[in-house]
UniProtKB/TrEMBL annotation:
Entry keywords, A to Z: Apoptosis
InterPro entries, sorted: DEATH-like_dom_sf, DED_dom
Lineage of source species: Eukaryota, Metazoa, Chordata, Cephalochordata, Leptocardii
Protein name: DED domain-containing protein
Pfam family of the protein (one): DED
Protein source organism: Branchiostoma floridae (Florida lancelet)
Amino acid composition bias (Basic and acidic residues), ranges on this chain: 132-141
Comp. bias intervals (Pro residues): 117-130
Keyword NAD: no
Gene3D superfamilies: Death Domain, Fas
Length: 165
């Protein structure tokens, strides 16, 4: 069938990405019992309005609504995975969902959702401006001396001379 889809004029990479996104969701939906589907609705009720979720009969319809409201997308199905864990279907998360999200899958990535590639960094970067090692050490010693003198003054006020042997 995939071969037939490639032959259809107008079938785009975006169409292919959508099919690859929906395929595991349909498989998951078909694998859930009525009770499990009802449990999925309960777990999604805080993000899908009650009136809207009532009309959704299959889990795949719920998943597509989650996509529509921006809770999941082609690169991030973590919410679906968490719901599957909550309803006790770790097997579907492990065997269906995770393999569909593998980075080496043959589906072309959506360029709009790809992170920017950072500029290559030099192997030996220039040191950042700031105090030299000796200057930093001297500053640290001043700060330490100040703290000890404050502690000594406070100790004298409290009648404790904890700095003397």
């Amino acid at each position: 069938m995939a071969g037939l889809a490639r032959e259809i004029e107008g079938f785009t990479d975006e169409d292919r990405r959508h099919f690859e996104f929906v395929r595991p969701l349909i498989h998951i939906s078909d694998s859930l019992t009525k009770k499990e589907t009802d449990d999925v609705k309960i777990y999604c009720a805080h993000v899908i309005p009650k009136g809207m979720i009532k009309g959704l009969k299959r889990a795949v319809d719920i998943f597509l609504k989650l996509k529509e409201i921006g809770k999941i997308n082609q690169e991030n199905l973590d919410f679906v995975e968490e719901v599957l864990e909550m309803i006790g279907r770790r097997d579907l998360a492990r065997d269906v969902l995770r393999p569909a999200q593998q980075p080496d899958r043959a589906v072309p990535e959506n360029p709009e959702l790809q992170p920017e590639i950072p500029e290559p960094q030099p192997e030996n970067p220039e040191p950042l401006p700031g105090p030299s090692h000796d200057e930093a050490r001297a500053e640290g010693e001043k700060l330490l001396t100040w703290h000890f003198s404050r502690a000594a003054i406070l100790g004298q006020r409290l009648g404790n001379n904890f700095l003397s042997p």
